[in-house]
Amino acid sequence: MRISGSCHCGRIAFEAEGEFNEALECNCSFCRRRGVLLAFVPRNNMQLTTPRENLSTYQFNQRVIVHHFCANCGVAPFSEATMPNGAEMAAINLRCVPEIDLAALTVTQYDGASR
């Protein structure tokens, strides 16, 4: 499935290829506040369709994940990370993908608060 997503104002937009019928909901201090529903794809399965310079970033804790957000509207459409095995991943906020039926997703709870 190919999807298109963006922040609210459109300064950050992307396309991604993958299976998007499941999402992860994390309860860590950051994800809980943002209310994201995440789907993971290999980084090369996601392409920005807007300039990379439009991304603002935030990192916390062990600084392993680069959380991207729009400095204009504040929405965080995706994050990037390198896994311990060296694989580059993108965590897509499915709430930023209009064609996804959020009610149809199988949502898995992840206990990030305990890590």
Commentary on this structure:
It is built from one helix and ten strands, in the order βββαβββββββ. By secondary structure, the chain is mainly beta. It has a single domain, classed as Metal Binding Protein, Guanine Nucleotide Exchange Factor, Chain A, CATH 2.170.150. Strands 4-9-8-7-6 form a five-stranded antiparallel sheet, with no helix packed on it. A three-stranded antiparallel sheet has the order 1-2-5, with no helix packed on it. It is globular, with a radius of gyration of 13 Å. The protein starts with a strand and ends in a 5-residue tail after the last strand. The relative contact order is 0.31.
Q: What's a quick, concise take on this entry?
A:
This protein is mainly β and 115 residues long. The chain is built from 1 helix and 10 strands; from the N terminus they run βββαβββββββ.
Descriptive keywords:
115 residues, mainly beta, Metal Binding Protein, Guanine Nucleotide Exchange Factor, Chain A, five-stranded antiparallel β-sheet, three-stranded antiparallel β-sheet, 5% helix, 43% strand, metal ion binding, zinc, CENP-V/GFA
Largest sheet: 5 strands, antiparallel
Number of domains: 1
The CATH architecture would be: Beta Complex
CATH topology: Metal Binding Protein, Guanine Nucleotide Exchange Factor, Chain A
Gross geometry: globular
If helices are DSSP runs of H or I spanning 4 or more residues, what is the number of helices?
Answer: 1
CATH class: Mainly Beta
What is the share of helical residues?
under 10%
| Whole-number mean pLDDT | 95
The beta-strand count equals 10
Q: End-to-end distance, in Å?
A: 32 Å
Poorly predicted ranges (pLDDT <50, ≥5 residues)?
none
Alpha-beta classification: mainly beta
Write down the secondary-structure element order: EEEHEEEEEEE
- Strand ordering within the main sheet: 4-9-8-7-6
Report the β-strand fraction as a percent range.
35-45%
Rg on CA atoms, Å: 13 Å
